[in-house]
Amino acid sequence: TVTVTGTGGGKTHTATVTFTVSAIPDFTLGATQATVSATQGGSGTATITTTVGGGFNAALALTTTGLPSGATATFSPTSIAAPGSGSATLTLAAGAATPTGSYTVTVTGTGGGKTHTATVTFTVSAIPDFTLGATQATVSATQGGSGAATITTTVGGGFNAAVALTATGLPSGATATFSPTSIAAPGSGSATLTLAAGAATPTGSYTVTLTGTGGGKTHTATVTFTVTATPVSSFAGIYTGTYTGADFGTIRVTLSASGSISGTGTSTADPGFPYLFNISGQVAADGKVSLTGSGSAGTATFSGTVTAQGLLSGTWSAGINGGGTFSANKTGV
């Protein structure tokens, strides 16, 4: 109430008027939370609220700025209907390649000739995951031998789980072992992979796939496993053993570094009349052995294999006089 006073001629009189002050038509804009968090490829939400005053009556359009690369922002609904008081859900989505970090995102509301802003912090973190790799691209071994590589894992984004290791794609007769067999939680570490070729594993190069599995994630890496023939020189040494069958007795042969074989055998089938025979032949690069035994009783052929582990074995035949098997172990060099 405003009083108006008039004074003069010794007289004073008053009158009153009511002065009404109203708010300017306007609105306010805010967010229910200060931070929205998401992992790469994920999303998070916040509620955007508006209130009106002073008779404000208009729809409010909502927009954002300040998003990192690969990220998007959506509002539901996309605007606040007149008179402008209400709420909308803001969804901030990070792309799979959005850089990790914290970003200030500005939310702007516009309507009725007015514009107001609010800010939220958008925090993008890495997806909990691990990587798998090998320290070398190729593992080499001879037939009957082995080679090794180191398998490494690293973790990120808070990944915390054991990682089991397996291998596929091995050639026939080959084996793969890991030591340790898995990487303990949180999943960062290393293991030794040993690839072993069998004596009969075919020579060649093979792609072996290594798989790591844990925490709902699976990753692979590859190594090339190269298998070569066992050098003939590795068979060199003195072998002693026996032969059995239609005749039986002992054998003692020497394998040279060049692959030639020479030695003797003794038949003991008739204890009263033991006889000696000479043995000669060759071992091939693949370990196959071809021998001939010659003596007073005739000749016999010996066919078999020799392994890098020092076992000479196979079958023998003397034609119509029969045959059998033979076996000898490496006893010296």
Top keywords for this entry?
mainly beta, eight-stranded antiparallel beta barrel, five-stranded mixed β-sheet, 28 strands, 64% strand, rod-shaped
Describe the structure.
A hairpin with a 4-residue loop joins strand 24 and strand 25 (288-295). This protein starts with a strand and ends with a strand. The strands form 6 sheets. Strands 21-22-23-24-25-26-27-28 form an 8-stranded antiparallel beta barrel. It has a 5-stranded mixed β-sheet with strand order 4-11-10-6-8, with no helix packed on it. Helices cover 0% and strands 64% of the residues. It is mostly beta strands and 333 residues long. It has strands spanning 2-8, 11-17, 26-31, 35-39, 43-53, 60-65, 72-76, 79-80, 86-93, 101-111, 114-125, 129-134, 138-142, 146-156, 163-168, 175-179, 182-183, 189-196, 204-214, 217-228, 237-245, 249-255, 260-267, 275-283, 288-295, 298-306, 311-317, 323-332. The mean pLDDT is 95. It contains no helices and 28 strands.
Layout of strands and helices, then pairs:
Elements: E1 2-8, E2 11-17, E3 26-31, E4 35-39, E5 43-53, E6 60-65, E7 72-76, E8 79-80, E9 86-93, E10 101-111, E11 114-125, E12 129-134, E13 138-142, E14 146-156, E15 163-168, E16 175-179, E17 182-183, E18 189-196, E19 204-214, E20 217-228, E21 237-245, E22 249-255, E23 260-267, E24 275-283, E25 288-295, E26 298-306, E27 311-317, E28 323-332
Parallel strand pairs: 4-11, 13-20
Antiparallel strand pairs: 1-2, 3-5, 5-9, 6-8, 6-10, 7-9, 10-11, 12-14, 14-18, 15-17, 15-19, 16-18, 19-20, 21-22, 21-28, 22-23, 23-24, 24-25, 25-26, 26-27, 27-28
